[in-house]
Please model this.
Amino acid sequence: MAIDKTKLARLSALEALALRLKDKCGDVNVLEAVKVNGTALTVTDKAVDITLPVNVSDLANDAKYQTQEQVAAAVAGAEHLKRKVVENVDAIDPAAEDAAQYIYMVAKGTAKNGDKYDEYMVIDGAVEKVGDWAVDLSGYVAKEDGKGLSANDYTSDEKTKLAGVAEGATNVQATAGSGAISINGSEVVLFSVATDTEVSEMLTEVFGEVSA
Model:
């Protein structure tokens, strides 16, 4: 027979499949052997006890992993950026040995709250400004009363399509039949559900008749 493989099976049909598999395969829960890196372990009462390391110290440190103390010492010995307040940009000496380790703070002539300094760094031997709170709002559309947006941000084709949606088009309901829904009062079939008979026929075709 031709099988429609797009249909869904019921729980009773899956149970029938499980029973056939058990009949064909026997007890699949019995372990015969478990190996770790090729070495067989002892199976006792269907269980295997595998000992695993729980601490890094239980492993051979072939990758030269660092301890917490070693990491802390490395971090403490590394170069860190520091802040330095200077009178003006000319006070920054890019040739100094530690010049690249600082963020230089230069006071602004007219400072706003929370933005009292310009920041500079020495990068590749040159003084570079690296921070600014100024925001360029040129090109932004101003807010207009009565509008969420002041421009039509979708196409005319999309607007026409939206206007053509039928009244109550969001009315989607379940139907009495399995695998279908009702949209605007019309039933739409989404998928077909196989009957128990169809599933049984499929299983017989695959596995053959169930032995007594």
In short: The two ends are 24 Å apart (CA to CA). Strands lie at 34-36, 39-41, 82-86, 102-112, 115-123, 126-131, 172-174, 180-183, 186-189.
